[in-house]
Amino acid sequence: MQLTVLGCHGPYPCAGGATSGYLLQNGDESLLLDCGSGVLGRLMALQDPALLSGVLLTHLHFDHMSDMLVLRYYLESRGKTLPVYVPKEDHSPQRAQLEETNAFRVEAYPETLEMAGLRLSACPVRHPVPCRALRLTDGKKTLVYTGDSNVCETLTSFAAGADALLCDAAFLQNEWKETAPHMCARQAAELARDARVGRLYLTHLPVRHDPETLRAEAAEVFPQSVCVSPGMVIEI
Fold it and tell me: Measuring CA to CA, how many Å separate 138 from each of 105, 110, 141?
């Protein structure tokens, strides 16, 4: 498996940047994990979006799905329909917009799913709207992507033993509070340590902070911590 970071900022991009979006390739097949602002253009530089096996949306906040609204136009022009998975409890206007076009076949995450030669499972996490963490494996290597989440007990067992953990780290420790919608970098590292993952990749990075500041906070707990950046290619 190979993961390419298309966008990694939140809740808005830096100049010339993009919010959450990741291309996961497994042999000749590929999946798009989230599709925030600025993601579609970066995806098109790498492959034809019509060739995706599907789109996995962790949740329907705009910084994770806004480019789906323009991906629609491209797929309609090609007469292509893509399966799109969303949390089943979500009944937002954003979901209604996805469902009003033949470009998308919107479905709720099942307990497990086989796509693009990968086995997918989804875990509810702690966020103001319905959101899922995703675990994807080819039977040899495993990627876990938290989506957006505050500290959530179920994530430790869900991420257990993953080779790579792509984790929400939107705050520094001194900014975090119990009611926050995200983890801080130190909490992401504690999750990586407790779940005994191989590597930690910090994402959903706030533009206001130097990524090195976030990485350094995480590395105090989990030395194998890296901040992702647009264009980064990760071999799982």
Answer: 24, 18, 6
At 117, list the tokens.
Answer: 């030669």
Q: Name residue, tokens 């949306």.
A: 57
- Residues 178 and 193: their CA atoms lie apart, in Å, by 21
Ramachandran bin of 164, using left for φ above 0, alpha for ψ from -120 to 50, beta for the remaining angles = beta
The conformational region for residue 162 under phi > 0 = left, psi -120 to 50 = alpha, else beta, is: beta
Which pLDDT does position 127 carry in this prediction?
97
- Where does the pLDDT of residue 169 fall: very low under 50, low under 70, confident under 90, or very high at 90 and above? very high
Whether the CB-CB separation of 104 and 49 falls below 8 Å is answered with no
Non-local (6+) Cβ contacts of 120 within 8 A are: 56, 112, 113, 114, 134, 135, 136
pLDDT tens per residue, range 77-136: 999 999 999 999 999 999 999 999 999 999 999 989 999 999 999 999 999 999 999 999
Check the CA dihedral 201-206-212-215 and report its sign: negative
Largest CA distance in the chain: 50
Structural domains of the chain, with CATH:
2-235 (3.60.15.10)
Residue that is written with structure tokens 């995450």 in the block: 109
Residues in the chain: 236
